[in-house]
Write a structure and sequence with these properties.
Layout: H1 7-20, H2 27-32, H3 34-42, H4 50-88, H5 93-123, H6 127-148, H7 153-172, H8 177-190, H9 193-213, H10 220-229, H11 237-260, H12 263-281
Organism: Stutzerimonas nosocomialis
Protein name: Lipoprotein
InterPro entries: UCP028200
Length: 288
């Protein structure tokens, strides 16, 4: 999965990293600095004036406080359940799907929470800021296609496997030859997924641009709620047709790699999960 930020998704995805386990080696460091990182990311897309910045930062502080006090405890429990299952050897398709469903539900809660702030921020954009945003989207679209679609398909498959291997080794250490071959087989099974992913992303961004063109309409809040909270409604047909198959391929990969894992790899994974859980448990906002 690729996590290049877009304007309205920046807050959502940066908060949601805590339940997605995207492979960041310093998750708690990022979390502690979201009040700086999120505004900085937004400035890649538009130049907020001083009044907009003040209002957004005030809303952001409230969102981060809400997330830490109401969502982070659930995330800690999620980590503990996952850690316990890895340690006991009780990782199967049912438990993986349960953890995945919990993570997806947590992201949905965040999407609902930040929708009013997103509507307020985007409705206040002037035409110049909207043009900056559209230009940034166009630039990113070209860069994505150059990086992920211009190479021949066999190279795309190899690169996808390399990216997955790098993420996995951050959690469990060096993969065996058998595990690396399994990752490559997973990437082959996804085939032309880069194109489906990019076309789907482009369609979502275009829907956002069209909504922003009508940002002063009474229907704008409802359109933004749909874009943020009901993303499946905006999928391309090609992406929709392969989503469940690709999801199953990811679960099968995780199960096979776990079955192939050594005691050393499992111990490293358990240690990483425990370290993250302890770091998050020490956050002051949980004790206030």
């Amino acid at each position: 999965m690729h996590h290049s930020p877009t304007l309205t998704r920046t807050l959502l995805l940066t908060l949601a990293f805590a339940v997605a386990l995207a492979g960041c080696t310093r998750i708690t460091l990022v979390y502690r600095n979201l009040d700086t990182l999120i505004p900085w990311s937004l400035n890649d897309y538009l130049a907020m004036n001083a009044e907009q910045q003040r209002g957004f930062k005030a809303d952001l502080r409230e969102h981060l406080s809400w997330h830490c006090k109401t969502q982070l405890p659930d995330y800690l429990n999620w980590l503990e359940r996952l850690q316990r299952q890895v340690a006991s050897g009780s990782v199967d398709e049912q438990t993986l799907r349960a953890r995945y469903t919990e993570a997806r539900e947590a992201v949905q809660v965040i999407a609902v929470e930040i929708t009013p702030t997103t509507v307020e921020l985007l409705r206040d954009l002037d035409d110049r800021q909207l043009k900056v945003l559209e230009d940034k989207f166009d630039e990113q679209r070209r860069e994505r296609r150059e990086k992920y679609l211009d190479p021949p398909l066999d190279r795309q498959i190899r690169d996808r496997a390399d990216r997955m291997q790098e993420r996995l080794e951050d959690w469990v250490g060096r993969l065996s030859a058998e595990q690396r071959q399994r990752v490559l087989a997973w990437s082959h099974a996804l085939g032309d997924q880069n194109r489906r992913w990019i076309d789907n992303r482009d369609q979502w961004q275009q829907a956002l641009v069209e909504a922003l063109a009508q940002r002063h309409s009474p229907a704008f809040p409802e359109r933004m709620a749909s874009l943020l909270q009901d993303r499946e409604a905006h999928w391309t047909e090609a992406y929709r047709q392969t989503f469940e198959r690709n999801e199953q391929a990811g679960i099968d990969l995780a199960l096979d790699l776990y079955a192939m894992s050594t005691e050393t790899q499992r111990a490293r994974l358990i240690s990483r999960l425990e370290g993250i859980r302890k770091d998050f448990s020490s956050l002051r906002c949980l004790r206030d």
